[in-house]
Amino acid sequence: MRKTKPLVIELPRRQWQRYKRLALKTPNEVLVFLVGHNDPDRIEIVDFVYPAQRATPDAVEWTPQDIVKLQAQILPLEVVGTLHSHPGCEPHISKADVDTATHFGEVVFGVFSWWRPEGQRRRRMSLDFYYGPTAPITHKLK
Ligand SMILES: [Zn+2]
């Protein structure tokens, strides 16, 4: 059967808000594993799991073995991908991001960017998800 590209990824609102609060007050990148269902026509995230990580303002490292361990504990749910922050950055994905997501076979790959445009007081934010990991997909909260 042909696998169709899902149009939307659904995120749990509370988990997202908690993540956003943490990411906005952390000068370093913050990464979570996205746990949920990955069906051919629908991706639903039900939990954000915070693995041990070593982060700087422009990089975050985690242990691949942690995904394997987590995966065994959450069946039949799956680790569908990751979300990480880009503090002080306008929206972009780096080559390292694409390489990492490709290497680990992430189905969805999210970046939360926040930045302050020069001369403006208001902080701007953008939450962007990719499928595969470079095709943009939309998200919604539930
Ligand atoms: Zn990144």
Keywords, please?
142 residues; alpha/beta; Cytidine Deaminase, domain 2; 7-stranded mixed barrel; two-stranded antiparallel sheet; globular; binds zinc ion
Q: Tell me the CATH topology.
A: Cytidine Deaminase, domain 2
Shape: globular
| SS element count, helices | 3
What is the total domain count?
1
Strand order of the largest sheet: 1-3-2-6-7-8-9
State the total count of DSSP E strands. 9
Identify every distinct bound molecule in the structure, by name, code or SMILES. Answer: zinc ion
Oligomeric description of these chains: single chain
* Classification by helices and strands: alpha/beta
Q: What's the pLDDT, averaged over the residues? A: 92
* Helix content class: 10-25%
CATH homologous superfamily caption: Cytidine Deaminase, domain 2
In N-to-C order, the SSE pattern is EHEEEEHEHEEE
Question: In terms of per-residue confidence, which ranges show pLDDT below 50 for 5 or more consecutive residues?
Answer: none
Return the CATH architecture: 3-Layer(aba) Sandwich
Q: Strand portion, in percent?
A: 35-45%
First and last CA, distance: 29 Å
> Under the CATH scheme, which class?
Alpha Beta
- Alpha-carbon Rg, integer: 15 Å
Give your account of this protein's structure.
The chain has 142 residues and is of the alpha/beta class. The chain has one domain: Cytidine Deaminase, domain 2 (3-Layer(aba) Sandwich). The protein has three helices and nine strands, in the order βαββββαβαβββ. The strands form two sheets. Strands 1-3-2-6-7-8-9 form a seven-stranded mixed β-barrel. The chain has a two-stranded antiparallel sheet with strand order 4-5. The two termini are 29 Å apart. Bound molecules: zinc ion.
